[in-house]
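We both want to read discrete structure tokens more fluently, so let's practise on a single case. Once you have written the record down, we can walk along the chain together.
***
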Amino acid sequence: MSLARRAATLLALLLAAVLLAAWLTARPGDPALYPPAPGEAAVTVRLVADAWHSGLLLPRDALAQAAAEAGDGALLEVTGRFRAYPALEIGWGDAGFYRAVPTIEALDWRLALRALFTPGGRPAVLHVVGVAPEPGTAFAGSEIVSLRLSRAGFRRLAAALGRTFAAHDGHPVVLGPGLYGPSLFYAAEGRFSLLAVCNHWSAGLLHAAGLPVTPLLDTLPRGLVLDLAWRAGASGPHPP
């Protein structure tokens, strides 16, 4: 067998293995939560994805109401702190990398590799940004995917989000100013690693809301965007 044919065979086998792994690890959605029934009240949330990171853009009032109904004091405190803004953009990631690399131009490969491959994972943080009514101006260059969630699904998402905030005496732990705009970093639950990156976190919250997700595909922002379009029928992606 020629070298070219061997390479083609190996590539085909690798592709088949990846597709099989994606299929085996795919998580089904919950039809009782997503999509909302025709005529049912819905809450629109957005996935904001760039070259290496994704986060969720959530309506602040709906999030505050869900936190109050669930008695989630930490999440209620966060939404109260950003009460002047109609939406919150929230992301999760490695504490060292996230705080040190605000843009792709500032990428430090040593930090990236350390974040992805440290045995046992690394501490995580949450980044919360207050967003004005027109989010496009805040996310130039990012893709935005819109998703209509049922109210029950949104409450599940809010509950999962609330569990991500690390709390001390019932209060979220503020770590300092965020990267841009009116923003703050908060201490977070979970450990960041190659098997638990920011895009998995975003997908996990959407899965809590009833959407089907494919963790292997969702490792990269573009994969998550395509996953939501293919399996959840999401509108987009579209530029801000």
About this structure: The chain has a mean pLDDT of 84.
